[in-house]
Amino acid sequence: MSRTARLARLALVLLLAAAATRGEQRLPESAAPYVPTPWVIVDEVLKLAGVGPADYVVDLGSGDGRLVLAAVARYGARGGFGVDILADLVAEANASAARQRVADRVRFHVRDLFETPVGEATVVTLYLLPTSIPRLEGKLLAELAPGSRVVSHDYPFPDWPHERIVSMDVPEKVAINGTARTALYLYIVPARIAGEWELRLADARGRGPALRLSVRQRAAGATGRVGTAGRMVDVMDVSVRGTEVTLTLPAGVAGPQPVTLRGRAADRVIEGTMNGGRWRAVRTAS
Known about the structure:
- By secondary structure, this protein is α+β, with helices and mostly antiparallel strands.
- The chain is built from 6 helices and 16 strands.
- The chain has helices at 3-24, 39-49, 66-73, 87-99, 133-143, 174-177; strands at 56-60, 79-84, 106-110, 123-126, 149-153, 164-169, 181-188, 195-203, 210-218, 221-228, 231-234, 237-241, 244-249, 259-266, 269-274, 277-285.
- A 9-stranded antiparallel sheet has the order 11-10-9-8-16-15-14-13-12, with no helix packed on it.
- Helix 2 (39-49) packs across helix 3.
- Mean pLDDT is 89; it is low at 1-27.
């Protein structure tokens, strides 16, 4: 075999190896086709989320970037980013950020949204296919801080109860997907209170029983049991909205009547008020 033929064969082998390597790389998965969100919906999303100067906004599937750009330039958000798998749209969004002179606070990236960390966000927005929404439910609940807001356009999460829904007709959507009907779902990330707690109730004189509180928590909500090692009973109601926690203890636990405890969760402690006194729960196990 001539030297020229050997070099040509080597080049072919290297080319095939490179092609095989590219084929092994997993391409980002499309969670939805690109559909520009009408501006009237952009405004409703940001108003529903209550976006303001304290917020960092992340848009999963950001397209031309209009939602994050509006959050910063028009609603005063301190910053944000968007991710999309289409490089031309990401380039367009970053160019828009430069033109609007907010590129120091807003960036757009070519990323798989399912693999994008979102813990920095106080507000997350999405307009995705209904098949993609369930895959994000657990991720958002696990990564976002309690009290963070999530707004999903048109499609709700399967288990996570929404805080509020805004429904309206938007004629601009007819040309996009054949219907003017629009639904925006607002979610508030709950504090993570699952686990074992020592619950202390104190009356006006600072005296009261110490109890065991056991809480189970899923996307759909939380349930609990309360009592002593020898006798545990079901909590009548457990409500978690952001860091706000409400528990209703059944009659016989803290008196002859049911007692409602309202408090705020912070790190490993929940504390607040009840009729005629205060209460405090300290985590003993996750």
